[in-house]
User: What shape does this take?
Amino acid sequence: MSVYGLKAVLLQPRRAATKTLRAGVRAYKAVSQSQTQHRRLIEKDREIGEMQAKIAALYEELAGRDAHIQIQHRQLIQRDEELRQARSDGGGSALRGLAEEMERSLLTLAFETIPRSASEAAYRTTPPNPGDALAPLLLPDGHRIEIAYAPGDRSVGAALVSSRGAWEPHVQRHIANSVRPDGTCLDIGAHIGAITLPLAAIASTGRVFAFEAVAANRARLLGNVAALPSPKAAIEVVGVALWDREAVLSVGWAPELAAFSYVTETALDAAAVESRLRALAPADALAAPTLHAEVGMVRSTTLDAWVKARDLDRLDLIKLDAEGSAIRVLRGAEDTLHRFKPTVIVEYTSSGSEDGGQRGDLYRALAEIFGTIAVIEPETDPTPVRSWSDLAARLEAGTGPVHLTCGWR
Assistant: This one.
């Protein structure tokens, strides 16, 4: 045997082993690829299952909405028949009751059939709390969202539904002209957030603190804040009443007039609350024949004490809507106001009085603090107010509250 033949014999086992090893590597790679593909197939199958579940849920929701609209339509037909019958019978009180019920049904049906375009993707389809109603709210960027409100509320909820979400647009425009995106703002008397949410959309990289004393309003406000799409400010809901001292106050409210809730040092009962709410609310909000008045308690503090505890280093705007206690709020905010000099927007009703006060007291309190006071106009620049007689004439000529913007010289 030659040297070459001997070498071939000696290398034969090595070549066989190498060949076997390579075959094993190829087999391992094939198995590994097969396992990877299997995992991908499982993941795809899971995704397809989730998509099918979402599609089924959407079909179910659409079917439910269609059924709801059909029910509303049948109820309207029935109410119309009852209304014609009541008219022919001459039943006055029954006629009024049926008319009010039909109005509520029409508002609900109108909102249920509002088309939802791609630009309104932030809509919420179910309220966060069972039993709540939903109304649209138009944001400054033109998007609409849905916010929860107390069923039967005629102070904000019905107005939002009938206006397709347009809430105090002149106030929103003024806020947009007054607040930078990184601003820090307070909404005192936030209710369910009809101004809090647009304010948070304007101060989209800043902070908004929403003060609401009524627990039921506050629960809805928290849900509405959570539903607001980004970009939005960091929003904190504060469950205290702002006052001129620390105390425990009575709270009066009714779900039918939820925006007119108020706090007072006086002990309350349901009859006293109903009397006060009927005095505060405009006539068009009083169509509900019955108010389910409720009484509660809330802790109060001053704005000065709260700002100190929070160690705020900035305050750009305050919206103040504190049904009958605005003067108390201002008295407890003197240091904060003079330190930060924020723009202050105050809702001023035709009475303009506080608990036990006189008409015009609030204007005089504002005039002592601020260098400029003006009425926020719907279409033009704010109109300066130079005296109480100026404002009184404006209130007597109008049909509702005005919004004052207060600034510093």
Q: What stands out?
A: The first strand starts at residue 133 and ends at 138. Residues 8 and 15 are 10 Å apart (CA to CA).
